[in-house]
Amino acid sequence: MTRQTNGRGRLFDNILETVGDTPCIRINNIGPANATIYVKAEAFNPAGSVKDRLALNIIEAAEASGELQPGQTVIEATSGNTGIGLAMVCAAKGYPLIITMAESFSVERRKLMRFLGAKVILTPKEQKAFGMYEKTVELAKKHGWFMASQFETPANADIHENTTAREIMTDFDGERLDYFVSGYGTGGTVAGVSRVLRKERPDTKIILTEPANAALVGSGEAQERTAAGGPARGHSAWAPHPVQGWTPDFIPLVLQEALDNEGYDELLPVAGPDGIEWSKKLARQEGIFTGISGGATFAAAMKVAETAPDGSVILCMLPDTGERYLSTPLFDGVAADMDDEELELMRSTPGCQLG
Length: 355
Ligand code: PMP
Fold this sequence. Notes:
The chain has 355 residues and is of the alpha/beta class. 38% of the residues lie in helices and 12% in strands. The strands form 2 sheets. It has a 6-stranded mixed β-sheet, with helices on both faces.
């Protein structure tokens, strides 16, 4: 029978109403033999990542509290996805937006934010995430801008409690859910989801992952903080890693909640190159297009399956789309020109050949 779809049964008043309600999709070809993995594909959000949720909530919470005035400029330090989400929200609501971003993050991210109307101020990569954060605080103070503060604001984990976690509860209602696997950037996803799972699905184990060569949580070394909860300095366990959007060079206050309240059961580090490999496999063998952090979270989910009881069900977050990584190592080896096999196929019939 021909596939038929019926629409969403409603009209949307603006793009922001389409944030959230992302699908959980079963893995069929590359999963483990003894367990079932589902992925929650955050690329279905309108600006392509999990951070659309937080961007919307930060702005709406600040509007409600009066912290953000009509037409006031918004500023944020971001590795990209929060900036893209904020650019969408600020465009729809009419706020000017300034983004500070380390020069090391992918060029696509800068261009996407600028395309959505934001100004992007680049910071030196040597000064890491901490440097970009300090620059943001300095600019916000000097110009009287509203700082979105994704690493500290309660609006971050709250939106995951109220949307991401609720979606999981609904979609797994009456179904097994043995493990929930997530990495962290700000920690909003894991902190918000664990608030709900701990109460409503206490048997679900929460697995946190981070880059093996930047294992901040694994190091056990506490983060020094300012009075406002921001980082007082960079964390000594950090090293450059390829998982963009994961693990800045400090432990965010938002993540600290999950660390302090037993918001996870096990910490499983993954190597960055494994994330790249699994992202490629998800694309080629499942048709699921996600970025490096999605691949890295999936790598952790595969490790979980190694020791999971038979028949286990694992849910793995896929935070964004792979399209955001065309200029990064994720696409190394993906050529623009035809390879030998493609050339041979072209020549296998006489018509329409490139010279
Ligand atoms: N992956 C990517 C690509 C991200 O941009 C982010 C957020 N910075 C995350 C994972 C982690 O999400 P969270 O901030 O909720 O911990």
